[in-house]
Amino acid sequence: MFSPLPMRHVMIQVMTEELSLVSLTLAELSVFSPDHRPIYEDRFPHIPGGQFREYYHQGKSRLEKITRHIPLSPQVRLQSIQVVDERKLRDTNEWLGEVWQRCSILEEALRHLREEEQLIRQLEQTLENFENLNIDLNLLREERLFLDLRIGMVPRTNVSQLQEALGLSHYLLFVYMEHENNAHVVVVGPRGEREEELGSVLDTAGFHTLPIPPELRDEPENIRRELDERRHRVEQDCQLHRETLKTCSTELRNDLEEARRTLIMAEPFVRMDTAARSSGYLSIISGWIPAREIQRTRESLSDVLVNPFRLEERKPSREERPLVPSCLPEHWLMSPFATLVKQYGVPRYGEVDPTALFAITFIAMFGMMFGDVGHGLTIVLVAWLFRWKLRSFTPFAVCIGLSATLFGFLYGAVFGYEEMFHAVWMPPLSDPLYMLGVALRWGIGYLLMITLISIHNRLMEGDVTRAVFDSNGLVSIVLYLTVLYGLWNHYTHGVFGLAPLLISVTALLVLLAYRLIETDAPPGERMLVALIETFETVTGYISNTLSFLRVAAFSFNHVALTIAVFQLVSMLESTQGQWLMVILGNVFILVLEGAIVTIQALRLEYYEGFSRFYSGDGKEFRPLRLETVKGV
Amino acid sequence: MSAPISHTYLRTRVSVMAEQLYSPQHLEALFQTPLEHLGQGFSFDQFQNRELSSTTLNRMTEKALIRTLIHELAVLLRPLESPSRSILVNWIRKFELYNLKAIIRGKLQKLSFEQIKEDLHELPGFLALPHEGLLRTESVLELLRQLEEGTYSDIARQARRVYEEKNEPFSLDAAIDRSYYTGLLRCVNSSDGSDKSSLHELLGALIDQQNLIWLLRYRFGYGLSASETYFLLIPAGWKLYREHVKELVNKESFEQVIKALKGHYADLLVDVDNVFDAECVLESHTAVYARHCLRFSSSAVARALAYLVLREMDLKKLYAIIQGKLLQLDDGLIRTAAMMGGPGTGLSHHV
């Protein structure tokens, strides 16, 4: 519960022909994470399945593209699990290629139709524009003897450069309209040898000729009708293509589902990649399995494999620890807290998994800062009503709601009313100094616990020196405790005390000496760095401890806000108004203060807690599994 | 970090990094260094691997050098926020565009997935090109459709027209190159006032160099018309102003263009009679200006960009030396390729 599961490095020796079957079996078990290091490269030089992987990736890419047009069901049902051989995968890939060809042609046709649609829109704009010009437009349409005249569209960004470029060929360019990203232009110049040159420049500039409709002068209505007809035809064509796609979907969906199943069953072997190596008939697979799953894995392989196999397991070596994936036990109650912890990082293998600690302390701090029976129960109720939306975060919201309710009983508050029942403990504002003292003690306890975890983590890494001398090590904890004791002495008896003074100064000097040894720099810089870092360690402990005062401060804030709401209520005369103000005031407190308190509690966890002991740079355990929900 | 702090940090970072730029003596020392030790500067240790062919080593070296440049860019990007950040990111997009061109060319030539992938540079996540998806397309039209949906929709639309109407990759490359520089110009135009003028001058110098080379190449190498050449040039330079460029593209021969050059460029290119030498001279000139910018510019972002420009030039030279040694070329040839002896001393005169 407090650290990732113990893992074992395994090396499975199998016959090469059974590699795919082993991959599939391991994926079914969902307990194996491949190790891609080339540790057995000398004895097993070949990485099998190069062509197989190529077929898979191409097939997967094709299926993904096809599903943009032919959607498949979000979940896959694998009726029977079978090994996919290279031939079957090749056939599937080829078939997917044919289907994609059909889809691609349709996609391109639809793109052309969209372009045509856009052209029609541009023509309508042109028509509207030309109607306002008082010229004979037939002149633009007809071939001229001495004049080369073209009308068309060009991307706006190219206009000015094109205008100047055409000037070099003695052509002129006029913009008569701008629409979307295109400029509608008239290009005019002398007929002759430069016509071909002009065509080339216009092509490069993305010039698109706009045909001038022949009836433009006489009956503009006819043109509108013709454009409408063209648009109608385009729509019809679009509809036709969509129908074709629909027919295609109906015809192919089952086969596509089958192809998807094939790819899913081929994926485990693909994901093995360099974790599977072979030498002739013999192959190996290397990776990580949780220690408690070794026996089950062995039994499953014995059940499915025809040929003998050998599964060798060993504990990870000290050097390998950073590479070992962290397998964190999953629990529905802990899942939302685990998600929040992962926002900070994944625990390294061997490190303490802070999820449970985070869950307990977060819930407690939230309740202490937001203690109110009414508010707490409202959070629980809302979380329950919106559980379909909150999904795995429902337990999180329910827990913090219950914590707020519990502290509400301790504080004796229901929606801010403190006279409804007697507080089991005390209302926060009745003795603020006492509450601040409680928060401070909570902070000290929390920091001590965190520092102890940090020491544990260093010891697990085998780094005894850091466990003792580092800023969150044993010496620091001694310094922290003796300073606290001395301050307590000073507060109660008026003196710091000789023993705490001697111990704390010694601890400080030890920390400084360690920093001096550790820092790799010239003497002056070394001294400066060591002094600053030691000073930072001391101030860090002080500021972190004081930071927990906010736990009490926000409980005052909560009461103060309710007092403000009641003050506003007392200023209103009508009963309805007062009730409305009570409701709105409480909603305001729930939403705004609720969010602030959540952020503050998270801040305390991340900055005051995690940053001291938690590197968060571990590798998440992602076992081979049959991906039947997301993706292909 | 606030802007003044981040810029002070950036200036310091650039000064520290500028120490690794090559002086002529340093370049000479690299030239004399055995191939096995040349990879130390960019964490590449495969030159002693006898199992790798020279082609593979060549490609691996190029990738490693680009990785070095991108890593340094990532360091310089850390303190920056938009719009300063986007200028440097857009500058490095040239590698993304190399990849885009490689993918398009590969698709046109019907190369396999692996063949195209081998030619691509490994790029960091902040560059947007979805390589895998583009590589998995099965025709140029599908590729263009996919591009139209992403960041490169403007290039894709233009590329489609060029492709459908001309069907030649050169025009596509030219359109992409032009779009790269105009995109960079747009970024500079939207930068803060304090950076804008310095960046304009530096970018202007780069654009002048590029415009002049393209002009010579398009006009006399590919035989394009004056108007088409002008259209393909970048619409804003520094000393090569528009009217002057128009005058130059209208010239009918290489010599006429050189003779028609005015001011600074006329002095620089007076003895040049081919595109390669012109490129060497202009690059040296840009390097001089970039070094000036690196030392004296008031804009930290301009200094960072100048550093990247110079670093890229240096890495290209290093690559030329490595490539020459790998292929066991003649020393003179390697010196020419690495631009070590100045123009007119190498390849063009020997061939």
Order of secondary-structure elements of chain B: HHHHHHHHHHHHHHHHHH
Q: What is the CATH architecture assignment of the domain at 87-190 in chain B? A: Up-down Bundle
What about the largest sheet of chain B? Answer: none
Report the count of strand segments of chain B.
0
| CATH classification, class level of the domain at 87-190 in chain B | Mainly Alpha
Largest sheet of chain A: 5 strands, antiparallel
Low-confidence stretches of chain A: none
Number of domains as seen in the coordinates of chain A: 4
Describe this protein with a few key phrases:
heterodimer, A: 632 residues, alpha+beta, Alpha-Beta Plaits, five-stranded antiparallel β-sheet, four-stranded antiparallel β-sheet, 10% strand, extended, B: 351 residues, mainly alpha, V-type ATP synthase subunit C fold, globular
